Amino acid sequence: MLSWGEMAQLWGKALGQTVRFREVTVEHFKKRFPVDGEELLSANYSAEFGFAGRDPAVLEPKDLGFSERPQDVKDWFGQQDWSTVLDVSTDMTLQS
User: Which positions ≥6 away from 2 have C-beta within 8 Å?
Assistant: First the structure.
């Protein structure tokens, strides 16, 4: 499982950009991104309780014999069109 910070780093590498992750208050986030609902709540929940809600019965990929594959995540990030999210034109080629 990747942390938010690790995902941010992989996203930045895939876009060839410097990316930093930092926690902010809900109020700060809403000023920058005026959204409510599931997206905001799921980020808060996973930040506090983890993606599985600290439930010891939840199996993770490693419990099933899968190794972590952060490179696959980077590849997926690089294959997406982020121009509408970032409101910029970007070259979507992967950077090594």
Answer: 10, 68, 70, 73
